[in-house]
Write a structure and sequence with these properties.
Blueprint (H helix, E strand, L loop, with lengths): L19 H28 L7 H6 L18 H14 L1 H4 L8
Helix pairs in contact: 1-3
């Protein structure tokens, strides 16, 4: 995998407003995207196909049912956490982020 040179500037110091849990969620989502999405997204975008093998990973990072409490099988996340997950995904997979699949809330 090629080295990731992107460094997002935090002009408004918003990172300072995130809790440790939010920072961890963002880090997990970022690592998953870099590991599982970045290597394949260009190929799937060129073929105009959805990479169905990412469904399990999306579930694991809390992208499905983010607001559903854990006792009911959801991720139990808040809106900030879900927004951070979507932001990390958007960095790599802008073609797929707008699919209704990701708007399950």
């Amino acid at each position: 995998m090629k080295q990731d040179l992107f460094q997002a500037p935090d002009y408004y110091n918003l990172d300072d407003l995130l809790t440790e849990e939010h920072q961890l969620i963002r880090s997990v989502a970022r690592d998953w995207v870099k590991r599982d999405i970045s290597p394949i997204i260009e190929e799937y975008a060129q073929k105009a196909e959805f990479p169905s093998q990412i469904i399990k990973g999306l579930s694991e990072i809390g992208a499905f049912g983010p607001y559903i409490p854990e006792e009911y099988g959801g991720a139990g996340l808040d809106q900030i956490s879900y927004g951070l997950i979507m932001q990390e995904m958007n960095e790599e997979i802008q073609e797929f982020v707008q699919l209704p699949l990701f708007n399950l809330h």
